[in-house]
Design brief:
Elements lengths: L2 H9 L3 E10 L7 H15 L1 H8 L9 E5 L9 E7 L6 H14 L9 E5 L14 E2 L16 E9 L2 E2 L2 E2 L5 H13 L5 H6 L1 H9 L7 E4 L2 E5 L4 E5 L2 E7 L7 H10 L13 E4 L1
Antiparallel strand pairs: 1-3, 1-4, 1-5, 2-3, 6-12, 6-13, 7-8, 9-12, 10-11
Length: 278
């Protein structure tokens, strides 16, 4: 079995339910951290057991949700992408009810109510998938060419926070990206031992894949922490890597990372990978 087929077999274990939610936030410039905090507080008050299962699953696992900004469009702004993973999908109705309560609780220091205007269909989703769970083994390569050989760019417009030896990686290589994706996806895979066994093969392939040097700059996110009652600086980088000969057998990892993100701060939309034509 090729490496790409092995990766795809493991990715079938990761279920995702994606939604794009169109919002109206009059009088408030709403950020993802702000919306996440308000929704989390509403869920905590509404159903604490569900909050615990979705926000704080087993210590080796990631939270079972991801919230990120939707596409910028004057007719669809603001909107967010709201993804639920694996067991979190079982609590979909409660999680949506918490969004309704969050709307009533309001945003900002003045607690200004906001509104959900519905769901938005976008080319990012196929109509057969909107509001229906599927698995990351079905994640589509976004370009028309053969995913193995198609030249492409790996773009990070939002802060990418990968750490090595306790320090931010400011010039990530393809191998750094692959390590971060492998680690992130592994937090959703029940039989993690077999997944760990292919890590070295993925890294070796990344090191031998034609790739440009990192072209980017620092991009930090400063957000307010209600728990610590202080501003937190989340250091990151934005930029791109070019794969002139395509990603080879690594393509399923990259396709899945469009949905899972990678690095630290993924639950707030950081580390979003966009794959574009070379």
């Amino acid at each position: 079995m090729t490496l790409s087929l092995t990766i795809l077999a493991h990715l079938k274990a990761i279920q995702i339910l994606p939604r794009r939610i169109l919002l109206s936030t009059p009088g408030v410039q709403a950020s993802v951290p702000m919306l996440r905090g308000t929704w989390g507080a509403a869920l905590h008050a509404l159903d604490f057991p569900t909050y615990s299962k979705v926000f704080n699953p087993d210590s080796s696992k990631s939270p079972l949700y991801l919230i990120r900004p939707g596409p910028i469009n004057t007719n669809e702004n603001p909107c967010i992408d709201f993804f639920i993973f694996n067991e979190g999908i079982d609590y979909d109705a409660v999680l949506l009810k918490a969004w309704g309560r969050a709307c009533r609780n309001g945003l900002g220091p003045n607690r200004i109510p906001f509104f959900i205007n519905g769901y938005v269909l976008d080319s990012f989703y196929s109509e057969s998938r909107i509001d229906k769970p599927w698995n990351l083994g079905e994640a589509e390569w976004p370009l028309l060419e053969d995913p193995i050989t198609s030249p492409c760019k790996l773009l990070f417009h939002t802060p990418l926070r990968t750490v090595r030896n306790g320090s931010l990686v400011e010039n990530p290589t393809l191998a750094d990206i692959v390590v971060a994706i492998h680690r992130r996806l592994g937090t959703f895979i029940p039989d993690c031992d077999q997944w760990k066994a292919i890590k070295s093969a993925c890294i070796e392939l990344a090191r031998n894949t034609a790739c440009s040097s990192w072209n980017g700059q620092r991009l930090d996110l400063v957000r307010w922490s209600s728990r610590q009652q202080d501003e937190l600086e989340m250091q990151g980088v934005s930029g791109e890597l070019l794969l002139p000969d395509g990603p080879g057998e690594l393509w399923p990892l990259l396709a899945a990372a469009q949905w899972s993100h990678l690095g630290k701060g993924t639950i707030m939309g950081l580390g979003q990978l966009v794959i574009d034509s070379y």
